[in-house]
Write a structure and sequence with these properties.
The protein is an alpha+beta fold. The protein is built from two helices and eight strands. Helices cover 16% and strands 38% of the residues. The longest helix has 11 residues.
């Protein structure tokens, strides 16, 4: 019974960001993730959440950004629909959200964290249904 209790405690005490998959790191130590559990398909596009976790705060004091993106798997391009800025790492606590108006498609260069996130998301179970 003690073993079952210990497993239960360990499973439910994991950090809230355990669903994030690391897709890259910059030379200055910033780390990039995407949320594999929130990949959604709608029509010909998929939608993902992408997290930029900064080593040092940016000029405005933000340590992380969550971006909600529309993905075109055929052309490996993305459209950022919304960005939330956070003063804490891993998108924790309250954030400030900016909705993109008239956002434009951007190409994802090969071997970049965003391209790796797109390739992983496009290969996920959600997109193969």
């Amino acid at each position: 019974m003690k073993k079952i209790f210990l497993i239960f405690v360990l499973l439910f005490s994991l950090p809230s960001y355990a669903k994030w998959i690391k897709v890259g790191q910059s030379n200055n130590g910033d780390i990039f993730y995407f949320d594999i559990e929130k990949v959604k398909k709608h029509g010909e596009y998929i939608y993902i959440e992408y997290l930029s976790d900064l080593l040092k705060p940016d000029i405005d004091g933000y340590l992380s950004y969550k971006s909600y993106m529309q993905i075109d798997c055929n052309l490996y391009r993305y459209n950022t629909l919304r960005v939330s800025l956070y003063k804490e790492s891993m998108g924790e606590k309250e954030g400030y959200t900016i909705n993109s108006k008239n956002a434009e498609w951007r190409k994802s260069p090969p071997m970049t964290p965003i391209r790796l996130a797109i390739v992983a998301a496009c290969g996920s179970k959600v997109t193969r249904k």
